[in-house]
Structures are given as C-alpha cells and as structure tokens.
Amino acid sequence: MDTTTTSSRGLLDTGDPSFRLTRVPVSAGLGAFVERFWMTSWDLPPGRSAAVTLLPHPCVNLVYDSGQLMISGVGRERFTYTYRGRGQVFGIKFRPGGFQPFLGGPVAELTDQVRPLSTLWGSSASVFADELAGAAGQDELISVAERHLRAHWPPPDTEVARVGRIVRALLHDRTVTRVQDVTERFGLSTRTLQRLFQRYVGVSPKWVLKRYRLHEAAARLAEGKGGDWADLGYFDQSHFIRDFTRAVGMTPSAYVAACARNEAPLSA
C-alpha cells in the first residue's frame, strides 16, 4: 500500500543546474506525522543569482534558512525563492494534517503564514536552531531534527490518520474528481469534511484535489505527454487552462515551450 500523502512534484523550474534537492525518508516512529526531510543546496559564482519556483503542497514545513527556524504554513500561491552564492536550506515536511497535534489549534491559522518556531516551542526552538547551525552535513541535520521532534512529540491523534486516508485518495485515486466522491466514500457530510480540513490541513479538500491535479498536469506537460484535462477531473478545457494559468503563471502551451527551452521542472 502506498502510504505517501504528498508527491515529489511541485518544483516548477530551476534556471541553474547547480541547484540540488534531496529528499530523505523519516525514521521509524516518525512517519505518523512527518512525510520526509528535505534539503536544497546551491553553489553559484560570485555575482550570479538564480531562482526556483514552487507550487506548494498542502503541508506545513519547518524550515531552517539563514540561521532562522520557521514554521511555514500551507502556501496557496506559487512561491519563488531567489538564491545566490553558496548555501543550503533544510526542511521538515509534515504530512497533510500532521502538524496539528504539535500546534494544538486550527492549522488554517498558519495558511499563507511564516512564523518563528519560537512562537510555539519557546526557547527550545533557539536550541534547535543552534544545533542545526553546528551540524556537519545532512545526516547530522536529520539526527538533530529527529531528536527535537521526539522531544516535542504529541500524543497519538486518530484524526491525523483519517485525514491521511482521505488525502491519499485525493492524491492517488483518479476516480475521485469531486468533493462529493470523498464524502460518499468516507461517510462524512460536506460540513464535517470541511471542518476537518480547516482544523488539520489548513485548506479545503477541493483545494487539495485541484493542487494535486495541477501538479500532475505540470509534470505531464514537462515530460511532453500533454495535458489530458478530462482525466484530471475537469469538465471543460477552458476551466483547466484557467486554473493552470492562475496557479503556474503561464498557459499550458507557454509552459510546454518554457520546458523545451530547458526551463523544465525538476522532480526527484
């Protein structure tokens, strides 16, 4: 059974081959709430800069960047990160719904927000950041992160598992094309489903479904396979083009042309 609740898609383009992305599975015992660790790194000549654009997943991340340890809520819009010189960013990607037990309140309060981890963990967040700053390499970064996660590990929450089952259906099952398909399959009213996602995920189930399908569309177009909008749950082509253009920033045909110019999405 595929237990993933996010894909490896969503990194739309990178204009420089020096940009590297690594994804690492979590250790046993952490997978109930955490999807994976990730690290980006780059090394550019002096005076040069480049950028990478992301179409975010419905996940909360803890991000260590430039000495700061931040809570990054679900971002609903595409995000461009500009980098220069030599550097790296380390992150912890929680499963959709997986950060709520750490937060204790509605994850929707974090949507489109970036906040210092210290607002949640107090002074221990500074200790966490200091230890990450002193870590020598990826393995040590992950060791530090796992130790601090375990120190703040919340009690079990069966709702996270239920959210995970629903999200897996949205991600993997192509017969799920509407929110009504979800309510019927999982025996939930639309209102209950909406409240569950507002508290645990931070965005609506309709948003999650659309985002996963747009990730898939971008990947297909980048690979030259074309965008079958009907297979992605759209009832008309104009609706698909409108949603894709708004999310990605260019029409599907323009995106194909950009990929052909070696401005292709990076997926790992």
Automatic annotation (TrEMBL):
Coiled coil stretches, renumbered: none
Classification via SUPFAM superfamilies: Homeodomain-like (SSF46689)
MF terms (GO), sorted A to Z: DNA-binding transcription factor activity; sequence-specific DNA binding
Domain called HTH araC/xylS-type: residue spans: 161-258
Protein keywords: DNA-binding, Transcription, Transcription regulation
Domain of life: Bacteria
Name recorded for this polypeptide: AraC-type DNA-binding protein
